[in-house]
TrEMBL record:
Organism taxonomic ancestry: Eukaryota, Sar, Stramenopiles, Ochrophyta, Bacillariophyta
Pfam family, one: BPL_LplA_LipB
Name of the protein this chain belongs to: BPL/LPL catalytic domain-containing protein
Residues in BPL/LPL catalytic domain copies: 67-195
Domain of life: Eukaryota
Amino acid sequence: MASNNEITLGRYSFRRKHAQDESLWLYHVETTISTMDEAKLLVESKFVDEKNDQCDSDNHTALDGTDMPKSFVISSTSQTNGRGTSKRKWESAQTGNALFTVGIQQSAWMDDLKLRNYGKMVPLTLLPLKVGTVVASHVQKFLLDCAKNKPIPRVTVKWPNDVLLYNDVIASHEKVAGILIESSQDWLLIGIGINVGYAPDIPSEGVDYGRNATALCKYCPRDELNKDQTWVDVATQLGRAIAFDLHSWLNHSSASFSTQIGDNILTEWKSYVDWDMELVLRDTPNREKVTLKEVLDDGRAVVQETATGLKRTLVSDYFL
């Protein structure tokens, strides 16, 4: 019989309750269409083992909404049809990158966070910025640990949902991680891809065009890893660490009550911004070049066109 914290499921390699917090559930599948799709199926099934219509009381598998996790993360070694924003293809068929989706209950943000904020709603539009900050901090920590006092590239964020590394040689910011947030039933699903073991080729034209990509392995030679580690191991550990931090922040914040939760999210995110970075409006006919001037309290971005000086306030536009 499976142990309390490790259970083989119908199509997942395993489910484990996190060793430090059993209300965070960990899932893994070797290959899938996308972890976002897997997460939606998991939510729709109410976390029931699809191979069995009855659940052993010893294995803690949910049935009819009982013993539900507060949060979960599902990772994959590879994806056959990963996607980014605006349904752009996220190339992830190779192994070695961090590919995972974190599920958080909508009530954790809409109700619990509001309660901790003394009844003041924290705009949901700040969620991408919070996630971006957590991902950026873990990317930076990995690079620092690997560098062993050698210089590392500057880690930056790009509104609203990307993490970049600044390449001194070409004087350009390259994409190392992307974030996609969707919802299903009463869950918020946060899809995250981090280039750990390889940088996918990004088209310069067409529907999937975007910014050049980079990978953590470029700055961390294989011989700097632990002897028995692979890039797949690193990617899996990185994804679970990020999921744990998001889960802990939402559900077990050490600063239980504050009237500054929204302000703190913005302050942390802005600490990773390169305000001088030139951006390109990706989905407008003229692809105007702009710079970020401010991010408002509700997460909207104020940008200024380089050519005309015209300012715009953006809600859901995306940049190159």
